[in-house]
Amino acid sequence: MAGEILDNEGRGEAGWSWPPVHPEGRKYGLIAGVVALFFLLVLDWEIVGWPLLVLTFGVFAFFRDPRRIVPQDPDAIVSPADGLITLIRKVPPPLELQMDDGSGSAGLGTDEVIRISIFMSVFDVHINRAPVSGTLRRLVYIPGKFVNADLDKASEDNERQHLLMEREDGVLVGFTQIAGLVARRIVPFVKPGDMLAAGQRVGLIRFGSRVDIYLPAGTEPAVVLGQKAIAGETVLARIGQTRLIEGIAL
To answer: Which cofactors is this protein said to need (predicted)?
Structure first.
């Protein structure tokens, strides 16, 4: 994943700009805009046209795809999603990620690992990114329900897509895209066998959802409940580091 290098000594250039809209969302924004203009200019129904025009801007904003500055730390596991960290607990990995799938790709095993759950509201960026650099070994789509993605049972009941990455040193990191109440489609940008860089875009979930990430054994979170995570930038953990981190809500 090529990109501009910026560092803590002032190298590179930074500036604010309007974030681009991902191509996946442009068609929805254009459809909403055409319908809004039809009601405003053709039917002269302002009571319907203006709310639809506001909705059009909302659709474009939902599919925004801002640039992210990815930490170049080989031990860092970066957040795969924007959103609020709502759950941190020890659980067994999903069945689809536990065992060898027959392709020679080892799984995460059956022992409990730490799962960090990141809830994305409709106001968050919904482009998901790779948490580490490595090879995508597994991508498994599971149809399911559409209960509130903020609930713990969403990890097992909702429509979801499991991804398993293997770093060059053999460390495995799994994560799961989970659809929510409003979300109705998980869109992948990658396929098994792809070589991915940390922070590289791997897919999106339309309209409100959640992402779970499963930390390797012997690794503790570097974030706390209630913290806001930024995809590709927030370091969720560093492989092999275990220490208590506390936060104070002010």
So the answer is: pyruvate
Q: What is the mean pLDDT of residues 222-250?
A: 93
Strands (E), the chain: 76-78, 83-91, 113-120, 127-129, 134-142, 160-166, 172-179, 186-188, 195-196, 201-205, 209-214, 228-229, 235-238
**CATH number assigned to the domain covering 76-238:** 2.70.70
How far apart, in whole angstroms, are the C-alpha atoms of residue 101 and residue 148?
Answer: 30
pLDDT in tens, 26-38: 888 899 999 999 9
- C-alpha torsion sign, points 189, 171, 76, 219: positive
Structure-token match 């275990």, residue found: 242
What is 30-59 written as a DSSP string?
HHHHHHHHIIIIIS--HHHHHHHHHHHHHH
Catalytic residues, by residue number, are 209
Alpha helices in 63-99 (DSSP H): 95-98
The residue-averaged pLDDT of 54-76 equals 91
Is 127 in contact with 101 (CB distance < 8 Å)?
no
- Is residue 181 scored above 70 in pLDDT? no
This prediction's pTM: 0.87
H helices, E strands: number in the chain = 4, 13
Q: Hey, which residues does 235 pair with through a beta bridge? A: 78
Q: Where are the beta strands (DSSP E) in 121-171?
A: 127-129, 134-142, 160-166
Domain boundaries, the chain: 23-62, 76-238
